[in-house]
Amino acid sequence: MPKALLVLALIPVVGTVLFVTRFRSRTEREDPAAVQREIAQLTRTRDSLRTNVLEAVGTSDLLDGRPEGDIVIGLPTPFVDTIVRSVVNGWFREVELRLPTMTMRKDGEVKARLGIFGRRTVGSYDLELALRNVRGTLRPGLPEMTFGGNIIRLAVPVRVVDGSGIARVTAGWTSRGIAGPVCGDMRITRDVSGRVRARTYVARGRLVLSAVDGAVMADPDFPELAIRLYVDPSPASVAALDSLLETRRGVCGFAVDRSRASERVQALVARGFNVKIPQRFFRPIHLPVAVQTAVPVGDRSVALEVTPTGLSVTPSAVWLAANVRVQPRVTRPARAP
Amino acid sequence: MLLMCCTAAACARPDPIELERIVTRDQLRREVAGFTALQSITPGKLVNRHSEVVVTVRDSLMRNLIAAAFPVSISIRNRAIVTLTDATVIFRGNVARVALRGRVQRAAFPRVSADLELQGALDGFAISRGKELNARITIDDMTLTAPAGAPASFDPLVTGALQRIVERSLPEITSGLPSVAVPVRIDEQMLLPGFGPEGAFTIPPSRAPMSVAAARVIAFQDRIWIVLRITLGTFITDTLARATGDAR
After folding, report:
1. Which residue stretches of chain B are H helix?
2. How does pLDDT run along chain A (337 residues), one tens digit per residue?
3. What are the structural domain ranges in chain A?
């Protein structure tokens, strides 16, 4: 019984001691002398590390020439280079150029020396070439970029590839003079297919960097780029046209041959066709990080007054800086997530 | 008697000088850890220049953004109410220190209160789904001063009791604090507007997805430096993007 009483008496004591131990304050849990020693040692270590870090930061070229501001955004030159290259690829990616339907005509007279009759007009020819469905694909090469001031100079090789086209050739022959009764007139129509000749052009221009609405914008300044599209008629198509014309024999064959129809068709397309890449094709680039003009705070939105303080392009980075002032509170619902 | 002694000891006010030394020691520990981490990433390694950008924000702006949320009231398990009204932010030695000031009062006896300072750090920088850059304030220390609402002789007891309540509820207070939005917009994608029909061209708009993550955060020279890793995908035309989306 006394044992049980003793245990009962000890319970509150032990409980209280445990309570006090459990809820001791931090100052009671720490040895003041040890804390003092640690402070001295940590101070020495901190000062030494700080000196090393500040020296190292001072020698970094990345941070040179950055403007001052409450918020400063730094886009290293290689990063901007990567983004611009991607966008330039995007400009030209899967771009198919398609020529509008064009019709070309060529006509003339054919004269021939006809033995005792001397040199006579034996007929006239007319050729009509209707170009249909001429298309080519643009493929960009690796752009060359030069950073300087707030300008990035660009030279983008652009190759026209995988192009093809169809031309409907209508060749007419009208006999004249003594050839008339023998040969008569003739009109044939034939589709001639061809391939667009692969060729590389260089689009030269520049991107002008500016700060717009808290973001860095690269505005393209490219003169209109003229591409000359050459279509080479396929030998098989030309041969097919020739074989049709060759069905005429004798005097007629001679006269038609003199019209050199297939040769003239080739001469018509050999000059090529101009395709202009207008300035608007080069679309502006918004670099992906910008200063916000409002932020959510709790369940509302706080407006910010953003004043740009500088845009600088150094050899190492493009820097955008702005001072930001938190506007007096206006209760507005926060943006939806 | 023993019980009373022990309770008095438990509720006694901690020695303010000792407490200040501990706070100083904790701050130094953080600074040393911060400088050690900073040393390993400078000078050339602060940023991977091909895929990372840096956003730096002055401590005064972060202070104003934190203060824009005030006053903030946090109820601690119905035992006390913490009301925060002011903040100090110091970015030094790779430690983004935040001190929040306000008042704590007993829930049951609202007149019993004390001035409160919570010390912590700005951390947990992350990009939200809305492509906003947010940070959290993590509280790891606190001090109480100017007890009120009880006779002066009870001041140590008031301070001690409130100190214990708040000290044991730091995680709860941390989770009750609003996140801090860094005023930086990060695009989710790059857009190229369409073009034409003009001449030989008709080009549909295209877009390239972009993934962004906070790679590292350092605090020095009164600024916080947030390094963002950005990866740009390939441009795909909108028609193709829609078709791919429909297929999913």
Report:
1. 2-11, 16-40, 59-67, 155-167, 170-176, 238-247
2. 567 766 666 776 666 555 555 555 566 677 888 999 999 999 999 888 888 777 776 667 787 788 899 999 999 989 998 888 888 888 887 788 888 788 888 888 877 776 677 777 777 878 888 888 788 888 888 889 888 778 889 998 988 887 888 888 887 878 777 666 766 777 888 888 888 888 888 889 999 998 888 888 899 998 877 888 888 887 777 776 677 666 665 556 666 665 566 777 777 777 788 888 888 888 888 888 889 888 888 778 889 999 989 888 888 889 999 999 998 765 555 444 3
3. 2-57, 61-73+288-326, 78-287
CB contact under 8 A, B128 and A94: no
Residue A280 in contact with partner chain B when CB distance is under 8 A: yes
Task: Give dist(CA B40, CA B246) in Å, integer.
Answer: 47
Q: Residue B208 — φ and ψ, nearest 5°?
A: -120, 125
Peptide bond connecting B178 to the previous residue in cis, omega within 30 degrees of 0: no
Q: Give the number of domains in chain B.
A: 2
Residues A133, A163 contacting (CB under 8 angstroms): no
Contact A297 B69 (CB under 8 A): yes
Boundary residue ending a domain (B184, B207, B235)? B184
Give the pair of three-digit tokens for residue A152: 């990035």
* E-state strands within A141-185: 144-148, 151-175
pTM of the predicted model as reported, rounded to 2 decimal places: 0.74
B4 within some domain: no
> Does A95 contact chain B (CB < 8 Å)?
yes
List the domain range (segments joined by +) for residue B78.
9-184
Cα dihedral B54, B186, B64, B147 sign: negative
Final residue of a structural domain among B161, B184, B207:
B184
The amino acid present at A19, given as its one-letter code, is F
CB contacts, 8 Å: B6 with chain A:
16-17, 19-20
